[in-house]
């Protein structure tokens, strides 16, 4: 099968994104289930890879020539990371198409404001109408997507759109010994729906109060195209000159995981909003895989995983007293941190293991089918060559 993704994958010495990690985790999970997998990325994304593997170069595509890349690979199944690519499929009607719905893209666009808000719903219904099979990243997201699938002609009376949570290799890395003083790690792409301002300020205040500890920041703007950054750069900029803050920027996946292993805790506590409630956050899963306990919110689906396995702490992102209590624990109870680190990796192996979570998609890939056409409730069609669509695609690629 051929996996289509518009973001860099976690290899080749370039930084990746949540979408790239998601596509890669599905592909590697499918490989573990006995599937042959080819990754296809846009040519301008491949151009960011210093020495791209031959199979990546061979399967690269130009925008609006996706069909040509598919014809060249002749896959038995097309797996699209995100629904937008389905609107570029024009000559592949005989190949079963799976669409992985990894996040509430329309909700994200309310914050980014880079898309045409009036056209997006019609584009989404048009794209989902081309899908023979869909997956998403969590049960909460599934309920968000079901009305869209119904409106695009899917029979939601049947069991559709299974949840495949963001998962990683069950062979978790070996964490390093605890550092002499706490190392707080924060990382991720700057995005307009994410605001860690309060918790990062509390971390720095606690470091100053204790005169101990460091904050290691792996964060920055999107690595391959301009995208609104939100408020996070403002708080990061105020921290740059602090003597106990190291700002590493956005780094390749292998560097991120290698350096994260020397940390004490991953900080991923964001102000609450509707996007954060629906998200199954990739950066958090990567931190847990590295053996980092996480400081996380108490309102999203992944929160329950963390609480059940005691793999960190979940709290209200506005509760400064509880945040301070947790930060004091990081300083005062290193043995608790070690146990939470072990719990985090056990959770990955048992619950977020790509060899098992990918099973519904693997079953479709082993036994693909074309879905009987349903009736879209909103039957407006927008050409993939429409100028507005082209402009939107360029902005989000």
Characterization of this structure:
There is one protein chain. The protein is α/β, with parallel strands linked by helices and 397 residues long. The protein has 18 helices and eleven strands. 43% of the residues lie in helices and 12% in strands. The strands form two sheets. Strands 8-7-6-9-10-11 form a six-stranded parallel sheet, with helices on both faces. Strand 6, helix 8 and strand 7 form a beta-alpha-beta unit. Helix 8 packs across helix 14. It is globular, with a radius of gyration of 21 Å. It starts with a strand and ends with a helix.
The secondary-structure class comes to alpha/beta
Strand content: 5-15%
The main pleated sheet reads as: 6 strands, parallel
Assign a percent range to the helix content.
40-55%
What integer is the average pLDDT? 92
Let me know the number of strands: 11
What is the spatial order of strands in the main beta sheet?
8-7-6-9-10-11
Give the H and E element order.
Answer: EHEHHHEEHHEHEHEHEHEHHEHEHHHHH
From the spread of the alpha carbons, the general shape counts as globular
Task: Give unreliable regions as ranges.
Answer: none
- Kindly report how far apart the N and C termini lie: 22 Å
Radius of gyration: 21 Å
């Amino acid at each position: 099968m051929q996996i289509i993704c518009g973001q860099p994958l976690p290899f080749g010495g370039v930084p990746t994104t949540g979408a790239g990690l998601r596509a890669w985790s599905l592909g590697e999970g499918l490989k573990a289930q006995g599937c042959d997998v080819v990754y296809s990325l846009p040519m301008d994304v491949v151009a960011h890879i210093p020495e791209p593997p031959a199979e990546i170069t061979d399967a690269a595509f130009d925008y609006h020539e996706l069909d040509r890349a598919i014809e060249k690979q002749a896959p038995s199944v097309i797996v699209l990371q995100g629904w937008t690519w389905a609107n570029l499929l024009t000559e592949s009607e005989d190949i079963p198409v799976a669409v992985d719905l990894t996040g509430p893209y329309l909700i994200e666009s309310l914050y980014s404001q880079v898309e045409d808000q009036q056209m997006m719903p019609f584009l989404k219904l048009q794209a989902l109408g081309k899908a023979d099979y869909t997956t998403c990243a969590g049960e909460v997201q599934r309920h968000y997507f079901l009305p869209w699938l119904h409106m695009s002609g899917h029979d939601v009376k049947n069991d559709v759109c299974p949840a495949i949570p963001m998962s990683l290799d069950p062979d978790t890395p070996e964490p390093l010994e605890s550092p002499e003083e706490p190392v707080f790690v924060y990382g991720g792409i700057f995005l307009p729906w994410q605001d860690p301002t309060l918790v990062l300020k509390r971390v720095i205040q606690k470091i100053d109060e204790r005169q101990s500890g460091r904050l290691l920041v792996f964060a920055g703007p999107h690595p391959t195209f301009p995208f609104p950054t939100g408020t996070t750069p403002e708080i990061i900029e105020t921290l740059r000159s602090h003597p106990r803050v190291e700002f590493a920027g956005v780094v390749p996946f292998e560097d991120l995981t290698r350096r994260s292993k020397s940390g004490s805790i991953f900080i991923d506590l964001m102000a609450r909003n509707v996007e954060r409630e629906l998200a199954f956050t990739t950066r958090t899963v990567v931190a847990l895989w590295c053996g980092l306990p996480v400081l996380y919110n108490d309102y999203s689906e992944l929160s329950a995983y963390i609480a059940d396995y005691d793999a960190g702490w979940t709290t209200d992102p506005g509760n400064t007293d509880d945040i301070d209590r947790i930060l004091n624990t990081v300083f005062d109870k290193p043995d608790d941190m070690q146990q939470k680190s072990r719990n985090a990796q056990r959770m990955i192996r048992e619950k977020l293991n790509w060899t098992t979570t990918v099973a519904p998609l693997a079953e479709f890939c082993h036994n693909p089918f074309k879905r009987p056409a349903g009736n879209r409730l909103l039957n407006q069609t927008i050409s993939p060559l429409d100028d507005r669509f082209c402009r939107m695609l360029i902005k989000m690629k």
